Please model this.
Amino acid sequence: MMRSILLVDDDPHILKALTRHVGWDNLELTIAGSAVNGTEALELFRELSPDLVMTDVYMPGMSGLELTETLREQNPELPIIILSGYEEFENARQAMRWGVSHFLLKPARVEEIEGVLREVLLELDVQEQKRRLEERYKLEIGRTLPYLRERLLMELLTTRYSAEELPEERLGYLQIAIPQQLAAASIQLNRPPRAKKLKEREWQLLRFGAGNICRETIHSRLAGYPSIQGHVLDYSEDMLVILLLDSEAEELSALLTEAVQEAADKIMNYIQLQAYAGIGAVKQAMHELIDSYLESREALLSAEYQGTGLVYTYEQYGGKNQWTLEDYSRLLQQWNEALLGKDPGAIWEIWEVIHTRLQEDEQNAIQDIQTVCVGLFTALMYFWNACCPVRTPPMTMPQFLQTVSDFPTWKSLTEWMGQIFPAYLKAAFSEMGVKRNRLVDSVRRYVEANYNQEISFMGIAQELHVHPKYLSQLFKRITGENFVSYLNHYRIERAIEYLQSGQHMVYEISEMVGFNNPAYFSQVFKMITGRSPSEYLNA
Model:
């Protein structure tokens, strides 16, 4: 890379000697210009923008020291070399205040001048490399920061931390403002009968559209609130979580309620997808985010059973109202559905909501709480028998009933429930691990028997009586690939067999292996084999 230098000296012989005898070409330096005083040099610098400057100290008009001071104010990083006579050297030391670190005494040998120039050029190269690395680093951080930030926020929704475990520097690095208050909202996307018949790609487009509506709504709503950060998280297949983090003291609850209501209405009007939402109470610290989120899920239960397109707050339908047995029946239904789906993540999540609700219930009689606990345990026993039919449970139903009746207070009962239920679940999940390969084998057998038809992974999960998310994660963990990839590879293997028989046309084979669109079949075929069906036949 060719760089340029500005030479400044009031002695024309020195300028001529520098121009003739220094090996500028070998140094990859060009002389941008020369000046005989500081004033002229300053004008040339502004006109030519050289990469470095070599100047004398004493000159008529503006001296070299004054020139250095002026240049430093305009360009703090500019390399400046002082070429000074011996008697002027003490004065030149003043230039150190302006960051000048290279001095040459007159008369200087050519080798000395070239050595200093090489040192300066090397410093410039190092600075340039550092600048490029910093730009690349900032670019990469800009790409990964949203992912890292979302991962931390998702973690805060599922893992309870203390305040000390969330240092401010970690939040600052992820550009998350330290909030004075925060709140969470959960939006459930409900697949109506029309949407349930959609192919997976079409459903994902609807989910994507719903997420965009939420993000645009939050962005618009927060336009006048610079102290509030808004985040929209794709929490699960049918769940979005909205977070507001306020570094000042705005009216967060009302703002979040209005924004979520607007988003739910737009989702219904624009993409005809039913949505209902629950909003947690406002909290004061980042480690309390999980509490607001769990409260939003509790409020969501009211939204789910009261009607769609509505927003329910925790203050209205959560901890501030007394829960009746009818209210608890909704939680029991969620508990039963989670156990039926056999998805550990969903089971743990609803259990935490239920246990939190029980721990906060100071109003219902102990007999009512006991009734709820018996209902929870009854469903848990069915789950145990389905997962571990030949294994003795940790506690039988008669033992459970006797123990529950012995607790004099709701507090002691719920504390005990917080011990016995996790123990049951951990043992059941451990036993389920033995059966995992059987589930994957069942999926493979289903594909072998039905690959020539339209296959719905949701349908397979329903037929196997497991939650589709759990089955999807299990299938990928054991096979190393997701279901769609496995299905496409299996269909193309069968298609190759049909091609090799020479008895069918390409469009016929497309239908025979489950592709309704011959063009799409050819695209998948080429993606997997590297050749189109016709190219494969001619090879």
